[in-house]
Amino acid sequence: MSGKEIRRSMPLFPIGTVMQLTELTARQIRYYEEHQLISPARTEGNRRLFSLNDIDRLLEIKDLIDQGVNMAGIKQLFLVKQQHANEQEQQMKKEKRELTDEQLRKLLRNELLHSGRLNRSSLRQGDLSRFFH
Amino acid sequence: MSGKEIRRSMPLFPIGTVMQLTELTARQIRYYEEHQLISPARTEGNRRLFSLNDIDRLLEIKDLIDQGVNMAGIKQLFLVKQQHANEQEQQMKKEKRELTDEQLRKLLRNELLHSGRLNRSSLRQGDLSRFFH
DNA sequence: AAGTCATGTTAGGTTTTCTGACATGAACTT
DNA sequence: AAGTTCATGTCAGAAAACCTAACATGACTT
C-alpha cells in the first residue's frame, strides 16, 4: 500500500506501447493473459491498459519463455514467488510488533527514504527501472 | 545525455492516457502543441506519443494557465528556463575543467548516485514523480 | 460592438485494438 | 509415421481511439 506500489500498479499503457517496450507481439501478450499470467485493466471501451507491474511481469515471462519454461511452469513460479512475498510480509509485520517505538520510527523512516528493497525478488526478472529512474 | 534523460524523453503515452494523467482535454493538449509549447513524437500512423517530460510540461502549462498566463507568456517562461538551464550546464562544464582528476572522480560518482538535482528548476512546476518513484 | 483567446463541438477519415477462428511448425506421444 | 499439444502467426469484421479541419462560444480587451 505504499505510494510506490500504487504508482507501479496504475494502468497507463495501451498494448501498442507495451509491445514496443517488451518486444512481444500483441498475440503473445493476449495469450499470456488468456493463461492468466497477467491481468491488465481495461478501459471503458474494453481496451487493455497495462501498469508498470504488468510490464515487469511480461518481461519476466519473456525471460522464462526464452529459457524454455511453459505457461504452466511460469504460473507455478509466480505462485511460489507470491507466497514467498506474502511470508516475508508477515515476517515484517511480526518483527514490527516486537519493536519499541523508537526502533519503529527509525524503521519507518528508512522505508520512506529508500523504500522497497524487499519486493524485487531474487529471480532474474524483468526490469523496467531502465525506463524510469 | 544521462540514461535518466533518455528515459524521461522516451515517447510512451497516447493522448488518452495523457488526458487522464493531466486532466486536460484532447483539445487543450493539441492546442498547446499548435502553439509549440510541446512537441510530442508521432507514431508511424501519426498518433501523438508523449514522454514523461511532455507530461511534466503539460502539468506546468496547466499550472500557469490556472494562474492566468497566456500562451505567449508560457512560451517566454519556457524560453527563459531553457536558457537558465543551458547557462548552468556551461557553468558545470567550466567547473569540471578546473578540477583535479581525483575531484572529478568524486563528482562523477555523486552524479551517478543520486543523479539530477539540478535540472528540476525552481519554478513551481508539474511533477510526475507522484506517478513514478 | 468588434476582436482575440482558449476551449467546446461536430464531422469524416484513419489507425489501433478487440475477439474469434483457422493455420503452422516444433516438440512430444503413441 | 501419424496424431497431439503448444506457442504463435494471420485474417476478418467490429468497435474504440485518434486525427485534422472547421465552426461555435463565452470571457476578456480594446
UniProtKB/TrEMBL annotation, chains A, B:
Ranges of residues in domain HTH merR-type: 12-80
PROSITE patterns, alphabetized: HTH_MERR_1, HTH_MERR_2
Key words of the record: DNA-binding, Repressor, Transcription, Transcription regulation
SUPFAM superfamilies named in the record: Putative DNA-binding domain
CDD domains in alphabetical order: HTH_GlnR-like (cd01105)
Superkingdom of source: Bacteria
Transmembrane segment boundaries: none
Protein name: HTH-type transcriptional regulator GlnR
Gene name of this polypeptide: glnR
